[in-house]
Amino acid sequence: MKIFKLNILIAGALTLSIFSSCADSFLNSEPKTSLLDENFYKTEADAEMALVGCYDGLQSTSSGFPIYLVATVASDECFGGTGANDGRGYQMIDRLDKSQSPADNNVFNDTWSKYYKAIFRCNNLLQKLPTVSSWKSTDTTVVAKTKKRIEGETRFLRALMYFDLVRMFENVPLLTEPSVNNTPQANPSDVYKLIASDLKFAAANIPADAYPKAQAATNDGRVTRYAAEAMLARVYLFYTGYYAKDDLGVTKPEVLAGLEDVISSNEFDTIPYNKLWRAASYVPVPASNTLDKSGYAGKGNKEVVFAQKFNSTSDYNGMSDGNGWLVMMGMRGTNFSPYGKGWGACTVNPQLVNAYPNGDKRRTASVIDLVGENIESKFNITDQKEYTGYTVKKYSPTALPDGTSDTGGSKDFQSSQDQDYVQIRYADVLLMAAELGSPNAVAYFNKVHKRAGLTAVTTVSLADIQAERRFEFAFEGIRYWDLLRTGLDNAANTIAATAQTVKSGGVADIITYDATKIKATKGFMQIPNTQITLSGGVLKQNQGW
């Protein structure tokens, strides 16, 4: 009897550890210790278990240099930052300039591998799903719907991961079945068409009531019809904007109709802005060494359309289900409750801080002001690269009043961060619908604009929406892609205009950008040299690198 290997090293199907390590909501699952060719992909439970493995694959992509860091560092919101004596890999990404770190050829190797391992899981489940023969229901209609729902969730996850890859690298292999073949890079349009097809299928086949918001405590993080409709709009806007083509196999009216479906579902709503973010809503209670967390709306709140889930059970013994990048966002070696320490990446550009309109509540909910909040005197500026006096609050780790890490599990500030990454918020649905020409555009815009404490408008233009998105989604991994979809020249020139004098190691440091270098890369990242070597040259490096 042949053992079915769950920890495939090259392509990574399912890993056994995920079923015992994931402790958050639906990712809880009993471990199985003897999965064989002959007894797996036979029952509905097997299919559901494999689907959890696909979600876990998405979760694993947070390590290395994931898309969140790419988008935040490469945008005009932040500089690379990190330690004064660290390498310059973050500066290379910030400027899209290889000369910042000439020998650094594998910044994205772990990222690339994790994504393709996770895609392998999705492709494997999609191939095996038709062979599942034992279902809980004897009603063929119910069985068919269950199969379609599982397929829809799997295809959404595959679409999301390909969307991340094609936005980061543009030229990537397109695999639609489990394979370890040496596959050349595909035409980006073909990748986007698969993404659109997968998302359309998910939207059409995941029942609207599969994962109701009222049961978020148990199903938060599951793919819904509404998540698929919202993600399709994001894909459509990026593709049609960046490539100036409209050939995805879905029309603008169809995309808008999907967003209107999300809005009319009454499943979602906006909530007070600071309640969305832990570090913006937690209040230290020094006498009891606790944090008052009552102001935080919590995971899976009404504004969350789709989130990448994490939990705090990670350790250094194989448990790897925490948020792998959150620690990079913490203040360099400095706990100042409720803010926790980290490695000082993504120092905030003062130009953005100063651009917020007067009275905009989003500024203080989004940015830690080290001077204004009396933190600078406790901060070791000489250990920080590209210090600006500002850092990111939305995705800051948190700490207790005594300075210890506010995490569960091992309470290790590096490994056990569990803040979810909110991929899509309801505010984004409203602004995308306005941008796509909804007759309710002004009302949708005002729902977001007034929530920020700003005065309602009577008309709204594309420029208004773009400006609103800049402040609404600052530091959420959205701005860079929003810039690129306005045109490469505009994106490069906008980023290049953010030159600043900062402090690195406590001394003056001038950050400048060369728009021609950004344009040379077309806004895309470096293909890992290891992957090119392993492919025997089948994979080709992106231009500008």
Query: How many runs of DSSP E, i.e. beta strands?
Result: 10
Give the fraction of residues assigned to helices.
40-55%
Mean pLDDT metric: 92
Overall outline: globular
Topology readout:
Elements: H1 18-21, H2 44-60, H3 67-74, H4 89-95, H5 109-128, H6 140-169, H7 188-205, H8 216-219, H9 225-243, H10 252-264, H11 278-281, E1 283-285, E2 290-292, E3 304-308, H12 326-329, E4 331-332, E5 341-342, H13 350-355, H14 362-366, E6 367-369, E7 390-392, E8 421-425, H15 426-435, H16 441-451, H17 462-472, H18 479-484, H19 488-496, E9 500-504, E10 507-511, H20 515-521, H21 529-534
Parallel strand pairs: 4-5
Antiparallel strand pairs: 1-2, 3-8, 6-7, 9-10
Helix pairs in contact: 2-5, 2-6, 5-6, 6-7, 7-9, 9-10, 10-15, 15-16, 15-17, 19-20
Describe this entry's structure for a reader.
The protein has helices spanning 18-21, 44-60, 67-74, 89-95, 109-128, 140-169, 188-205, 216-219, 225-243, 252-264, 278-281, 326-329, 350-355, 362-366, 426-435, 441-451, 462-472, 479-484, 488-496, 515-521, 529-534, and strands at 283-285, 290-292, 304-308, 331-332, 341-342, 367-369, 390-392, 421-425, 500-504, 507-511. The chain has 545 residues and is mostly helical. The strands form 5 sheets. It has a two-stranded antiparallel ribbon with strand order 1-2. Strands 3-8 form a two-stranded antiparallel sheet. A two-stranded parallel sheet has the order 4-5. It is globular. 51% of the residues are buried.
